[in-house]
Design a protein that fits this description.
Elements (H helix, E strand, L loop, with lengths): L4 E7 L5 E5 L2 H12 L7 E7 L12 E2 L5 E3 L10 H6 L4 E2 L2 E3 L2 E2 L4 E7 L1 H5 L2
Length: 121
């Protein structure tokens, strides 16, 4: 495990969604996406936790850092916009987003969030 590094993704015009990575391999993958080196697996997926985090204050949920990966294509049952997930959080982890697994197809990792920006939240 390395020190946490934060990244943001956008999804079809929604406000940024910030997520934390602690795996050196995942951090390296995210940096390749941001740099443009990786052009296929640019979407983010993982299990959600129904809890707001200081580093992602716009949303009432976050990704569990230990479950995050990146994808090119995923099954439809885990696709939803950040706003839809937030608005239907009480239904998540059942028929909606089974197993709390979220894979927003429109997501694209766009930037590494500087530590100072995360600390300022």
């Amino acid at each position: 495990m390395s020190d946490p590094v934060y990244f943001a993704f956008t999804a079809n015009g929604h406000p940024e969604f910030i997520f934390k990575l602690t795996s050196e391999a995942r951090i390296a993958e995210a940096r390749r996406i941001v740099s443009g080196e990786e052009t296929e697996s640019v979407h983010v997926m993982g299990r959600i936790r129904k809890q707001r985090k200081d580093y992602n204050p716009r949303w009432d949920f976050h990704f569990d850092p230990d479950t995050i990966s990146f994808f090119t294509m995923a099954i439809e049952v885990c696709d939803a916009s950040p706003h839809y997930v937030n608005d239907h959080l009480d239904e998540a982890c059942g028929a909606f987003l089974p197993g709390c697994f979220w894979c927003p197809w429109d997501s694209k990792v766009t930037r590494e969030v500087p530590a100072a920006e995360v600390a300022a939240v």
